Recover the amino acids of this structure.
DNA sequence: GTCCATTTGTGCGAATTCTCACAACAAGAT
DNA sequence: ATCTTGTTGTGAGAATTCGCACAAATGGAC
């Protein structure tokens, strides 16, 4: 049995489609199709039903995928072990962080890290989707709440508060009872800053919903309404002015997350220290 | 990271040499060398020291091999699961048994199994070395003592006794105090039948040591001395005559061993039943 | 309805990988 | 001393595999 065939089959089982599996493996979708077919042939067992527009696992395929799944975990553990045994300082480090944190707090200071340690190549991915450290989609991650996955080490390295911001002109000319608001889309209704702003907005109108904080900030700058923005973002921008409201301010903690296997790697430690400095 | 590269590296780590790893994988030794080199290149990590006539794992290599080893176990678990999900009766079944049991009790009756179930292809390996059911070197095994490995199901399906046999002529012409004996080599001094015979032989001479029971039987037939043979082997041969001695006879239990994962497979059940009949 | 994005399937040329044959060398047996 | 057996290493041709370009089909957006 060819292990690479198994790898491709597991990717298909995990991703659901040939194309998605191919993307996750960085190969052509045809290759995935061929390797799955090869695996079926070598096992003399039908693993997938080829439906017109989709691949669906057979019962046998589901059982085999479940049994074989630990191989993927072990393979990633190997990759982490390899990364961990690189004793020198240098190499590729991937950081995953919420886009706003990445753009405002991390990216502008990367030049300093680069000067101190030219051997380190940073890959910074600003994604809402939390990258999996277990699957080694990132070596370090910034999260806004403590992760619970096993094998991960989290440390609280910062805290920031939100405030409402609008353009100076908008705040001067608009009476509070006529305020309009800019919010995340409704899938984010449960995050603290959204709930906080919604409570304050009460029945007043929400004129824009965007899942991108930068878009909200841009809209607020043009005088479209008030947006709940992190202070580190709003205070630095002269085109935005804070509108203080009463009550307890809302804030989020910032957690730095690293996999246990990579904790002691010199390069990872250095980058982790750098990120802490960025948040200080 | 290519999983097949890992597979080849693990085979090398397990077997110790390129050639042995190549044999276990049914490929050319050059292939193993290249895949290990490819793995090293893709990880940027030296895994082996190439010494003049041997490959030796580096410290990194040992650590990686240890971490990755579970992948091999899982791969074999997949193969067993595949075997187990073959619902029809038929296919290849490998039986491992001590040579004497295989030759005398199993092999002659295989024709009956073949007649009843033409779809089943049996591979019978008579080896002293106990084949690994975990590594799927065999689907069913006969052992003379209860195995302790985890995941294996053992059932006692038989019992046979040993007796001393010599040629009829030898027994007629030789007085007991002049008996000569035929034994296993000294690596087998601890097995019960050997201890039993040695105690009876006391100071009398051992004229032949062989690790093959068939050789011992052949020597006994020619009148070279007495050999401790299973009764099922000695009684059926007119050229051998039993020499009874006092005391409690020595015997061995026969255990039928199957992996838990294959227990319920129809084909395996049928073959297991057949083997039980052979021993009854 | 039309357009766009996404999915799987096919044919072909290019790149890669594998096996085979042979070589060099060491260790042990005869 | 010679022969056999078992290592690893090298080069070349054959076999395999891969990716690309294109096609067909479906579902959703507008």
């Amino acid at each position: 049995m060819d292990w690479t065939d198994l790898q491709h089959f597991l990717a298909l089982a995990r991703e659901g489609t040939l194309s998605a599996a191919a993307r996750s493996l960085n190969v052509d979708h045809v290759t995935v199709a061929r390797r799955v077919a090869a695996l079926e042939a070598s096992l003399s067992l039908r693993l997938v039903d080829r439906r017109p527009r989709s691949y669906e696992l057979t019962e046998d395929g589901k059982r085999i995928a479940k049994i074989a799944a630990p191989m993927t975990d072990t393979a990633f553990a190997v990759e982490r072990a390899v990364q961990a045994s690189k004793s020198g300082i240098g190499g590729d480090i991937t950081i995953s962080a919420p886009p706003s944190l990445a753009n405002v707090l991390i990216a502008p200071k990367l030049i300093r890290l680069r000067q101190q340690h030219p051997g380190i190549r940073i890959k910074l991915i600003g994604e809402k989707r939390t990258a999996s450290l277990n699957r080694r989609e990132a070596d370090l991650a910034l999260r806004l709440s403590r992760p619970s996955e096993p094998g991960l080490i989290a440390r609280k390295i910062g805290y920031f508060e939100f405030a409402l911001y609008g353009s100076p002109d908008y705040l001067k000319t608009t009476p509070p009872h006529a305020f309009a608001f800019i919010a995340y889309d409704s899938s984010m209704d449960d995050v603290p800053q959204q709930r906080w702003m919604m409570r304050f907005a009460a029945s007043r109108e929400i004129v824009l919903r965007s899942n991108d904080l930068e878009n909200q900030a841009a809209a607020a700058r043009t005088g479209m309404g008030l947006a709940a923005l992190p202070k580190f973002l709003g205070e630095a921008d002269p085109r935005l002015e804070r509108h203080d409201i009463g009550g307890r301010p809302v804030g989020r903690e910032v957690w730095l997350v690293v996999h246990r296997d990579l904790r002691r790697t010199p390069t990872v430690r250095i980058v982790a220290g750098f990120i802490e400095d960025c948040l200080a």
Observations:
- The radius of gyration of chain A is 24 Å.
- Chain A has a mean pLDDT of 92.
- Residues 17-19, 29-30, 33, 50, 52-55 of chain A lie near DNA strand C (CB under 10 Å from a C1').
- The CA atoms of residues 128 and 218 of chain A lie 19 Å apart.
